[in-house]
What we know:
By secondary structure, this protein is an alpha+beta fold. The protein has helices at about 1-20, 30-40, 75-95; strands spanning about 55-60, 70-75, 110-115, 120-124. The strands form two sheets. It has a two-stranded antiparallel sheet with strand order 1-2. Strands 3-4 form a two-stranded antiparallel sheet.
Amino acid sequence: MKRILFFSIATLLFSCELASDEPLQASYEELLSQQQEIIKLSESVSCTNSSDWKITPMGSKACGGPSRYIAYHVSVEKDFLDLVNRYTALEKAYNEKNNVISDCMMVVAPKSVTCEGNKPVLVF
Length: 124
């Protein structure tokens, strides 16, 4: 009985390990679609109080670092950051797989967010 239990647990752990080692793959169209989903979620909340907004890096330049920064409302923080983190990992994998090159210029982080016309605007 102990052998069966050990074998079952070992098989489960090994199969989980294999699943996590699978490379992330995305097409350019999938990246665009995910980017649009992130922007849509960012814009889903009206900006009326800038103190309710945060900023996060998004994407991955081929030379390293984020490709941009984006604002999000605290009410959608968990879902938003999950999407951004997945997008960033996919873009990094896409860049590596396709030997993408970029300008390698560092993207400057914004200092804050302000609200203009009920939309968040990054302040540099």
